[in-house]
Amino acid sequence: MNYRTLDDLAGGQRVVVRLDLNSPVEDGRVRDNRRFSRHARTVRDLVDADHGVAVLAHQGRPGRDTFLPLEQHADILAGHVDHPVEYVPDTYGAEALAAIRDLEGGDVVVLENVRMTEDELPEKPPEEHAESDLVRTLAPEFDAYVGDAYSTAHRSHASIVGLPTVMEAYAGRVMVAEYEANSAIATRDFEGEVTMVAGGKKATDVIEVMTALEDKVDNFLLGGIAGELFLRAVGYEVGRDIGDMDLYDTQYEQNRERIQRLIEAHPSELVFPTDLAYEGDDGRRHEDTVADVKNKDDDYLDVGTDTIERYADIAANSEAVFVKGALGVFEDERFSDGTVRVLEAVARCDCFSVVGGGDTSRAIEMYGMDEADFSHVSIAGGAYINALTGEPLAGVEALRQVDGEPETQA
Q1: Cβ(247)–Cβ(266) under 8 Å?
Q2: How many CA atoms lie within 13 A of 230 on its CB side?
Q3: Calpha distance 36→16 (Å, rounded)
Q4: Residue 152 DSSP label
Q5: What is the DSSP letter of 161?
Q6: Is 40 in the same domain as 152?
Q7: What is the pTM of this model?
Q8: Chain centre distance of CA 151
Q9: Contact by Cβ (8 Å): 236, 291
Q10: Region 286-310: what's the mean pLDDT?
Q11: pLDDT score for 3
Q12: 1 occurs within a structural domain
């Protein structure tokens, strides 16, 4: 990707930077998480270069309990930047414009939740967003736009694509790191084996990724909902809903043909679980071999011991490992073995490794692993999937420009 970065931005300017500070909320309190620490590097670098900085960000969506003002976010960000950050309860009205015009070098303000404006959320082409009141009001107030919200880069929203369409645009530190790591599976050539851990609850997403990367990946380590669906497709009595569960049957019907095609086209690349773990009547972890399951009576919550050992060995001997989804319900320590032990094997090996998806990456922190032992730990969800599948990201494409004009690719 050809783009300008912060290293190309002359110091001492007034800039607007789009971050993704969207965070979990508990009882009205915003939880600190790695998004703040990651984006803090971009903000610190802008402050150090004597820029006056206005932050655009969002929290939740209208109508949801997580749809909150950004006052707490400004306080949390200030702690990570180790620099004062002012909250402005306005996005592009008179109060916001006054705060922007008062910016001096080294000042940082967080403008109000951009999704509280009517212009932000509609999915529109960049040129239409460029005509919105939000963009037409804010753009003239700044010398440059910095796009750092990689996690939201798959959304064609006004602050993501409209502003960089009419302004000099630069990629922030998070945008560069995320894009280059997450797209590596499609853009880099690896001499050794490439392995993907394919798990999680969203089997449809996983199967979409597998279909896009079937010729790039040597080993798909199947787990989670997707793992059971593939086992069901080859005749094992798993991968079915029980009770009032709604996780398996619908996704199986939606993906049956794609699953069957992948099985037929890649019999040696698909690595199936041989055993699965469940909660017994005694509340403890128990395991079944998939061949012994005659009727699915239990909800399987992790891959079993034999599967874990095989998967860890394959991952440890790969040149590159990409993680898309957990192998089990790692939030419950009883069923964390598959996810944690395979991640630990990846961390120990000398390979290029990317752990993607907000949920899966949480396991690293929960179980005391060091992010530095992985090549990249992504904070993105949907954008990570788009990068893996080679789908263009609207927020990335908007940065492909020179002096406000779209850049032509050779």
Answers
A1: no
A2: 28
A3: 17
A4: G
A5: I
A6: yes
A7: 0.82
A8: 5
A9: yes
A10: 96
A11: 85
A12: no
Domain annotation covers residue 295:
yes
Whether the predicted pLDDT of 156 surpasses 50? yes
Residue 381 lies in a domain: yes
Confidence of residue 390 (pLDDT cuts 50, 70, 90): confident
Q: Are 239 and 252 in contact (CB under 8 A)?
A: yes
**Cα distances (Å, whole numbers) of residue 386 to 77, 155, 205:** 28, 11, 10
Continuous H helices in 63-124: 71-81, 94-101
Instruction: Report the domain count for the chain.
Output: 2
Q: Which of the 8 DSSP states describes residue 408? A: P
Q: Clarify whether residues 241 and 188 are in a common domain.
A: yes
**Which CATH number goes with the domain that contains 317?**
3.40.50.1260
pLDDT digit string, tens, across residues 252-281? 999 999 999 999 999 999 999 999 999 999
Tokens 């000398």 correspond to: 350
Interatomic CA distance for residues 323 and 326, integer angstroms: 8
Write the single-letter amino acid at 248.
Y
300 in helix, strand or coil? coil
Integer Cα distance of 106 and 12 in angstroms: 9
